[in-house]
Amino acid sequence: MMFRQNSGELLPETGSNYDSRWWALIYDQWNEAGGRSEQHERELHFYREHLQDTRGAILEAACGTGSIMLPLLLNGFDIFGFDASITMLDVLSRKAAGLGLSDIDSRITQQDLVDFSYDHPFEAVLIPASSIMMLSTQQNQITCLRRVHDCLQPGGRLLLNFYIPSYTEDLLLHQDAQPAEEEFGKFDHPETGRPIEVSHTKICDLTMQTETYTWIFRYDGETVQVPMQARWIHKEEFQLLLRLGGFDHWELYGSYDGKPYVGSEHMGDTYWMVTK
């Protein structure tokens, strides 16, 4: 599948969540070299370590710009990926070409987390970087897990990670119906070099377990707002969602290097290895 190239200039916004072309312009600067880079390295370590004995095909769901997929391809894994954002896949395709990965277009497709399908099974499916939280209803999260179960071969594994937010340090602080704008960062347009300033507002719904953002991108005198909604999942709830998705066996870690998960008042990372 061929993916069109971006023009370099920002176009009127039509997407939401990470589907927005604005995120494609800044995502790698944030995720690989900026404020999220240490978390990205921890995630990559987790997936590399738990895939060491994998010899069959691997699927990365919500592969984005290839921050996990491309290093694993370079490590020799037979990995495929999909994402809902064509602009993210554009970036992935260009990065792959720069790395000499000539078959990338046969490995990536535009699909989303609730209705993806393949005609061959996988030994492992990955959902990194809290991507399952971008499904903002419990039913969609269950549907995604059922899709994963269908895609896995017997004995295959789902590997994923997501965070559990802190009530005292995050959720209870974002209850205002007219939230204040919070600075996120300044990034360089990858082609013009001119700055893209990013901020956001955030409202947390304690009943529906949702975080509703308005991301604000400012570039060359233009201001664009991009909506985003995520749904957090508690540890005990996710175990029930796994059962509803068809799974019975899993291991939970509280860190990328296998430490036990211990709940606390602070934001916590969860890393899961789920077996079909």
Could you please describe the fold and organization of this structure?
With 276 residues, the protein is of the alpha/beta class. It has two domains: 17-165 and 232-275, 3-Layer(aba) Sandwich (Rossmann fold); 171-229. Helices cover 25% and strands 30% of the residues. The protein has helices at 21-31, 37-50, 69-74, 86-98, 138-151, 235-244, and strands at 58-61, 79-83, 108-110, 122-127, 152-164, 182-188, 195-205, 210-219, 222-231, 249-253, 268-275. The strands form two sheets. It has a seven-stranded mixed sheet. It has a four-stranded antiparallel sheet with strand order 6-7-8-9. It is globular and about 50 Å long. It starts with 20 loop residues before the first helix and ends with a strand. Mean pLDDT is 94; it is low at 1-12.
Short structural summary:
The protein has helices at residues 21-31, 37-50, 69-74, 86-98, 138-151, 235-244, and strands at 58-61, 79-83, 108-110, 122-127, 152-164, 182-188, 195-205, 210-219, 222-231, 249-253, 268-275. It is an alpha/beta fold and 276 residues long.
List keywords for this structure.
globular; 2 domains; Rossmann fold; seven-stranded mixed β-sheet; single chain; 25% helix; alpha/beta; 276 residues
Distance between the termini: 30 Å
Under CATH, the topology of the largest domain is which? Answer: Rossmann fold
Q: DSSP strand (E) fraction? A: 25-35%
> Quaternary arrangement of the chains shown?
single chain
Helix content: 10-25%
CATH first level of the largest domain: which class? Alpha Beta
What structural class do helix, strand and pairing data support?
alpha/beta
Biggest sheet overview? 7 strands, mixed
Domains, number: 2
**Which descriptor suits the 3D outline?**
globular
Number of helices: 6
Strand order of the largest sheet: 3-2-1-4-5-11-10
Instruction: Name the CATH superfamily classification of the largest domain.
Output: Vaccinia Virus protein VP39
Low-confidence stretches: 1-12
Architecture (CATH level 2) name of the largest domain: 3-Layer(aba) Sandwich
What integer is the average pLDDT? 94
* Estimated radius of gyration: 18 Å
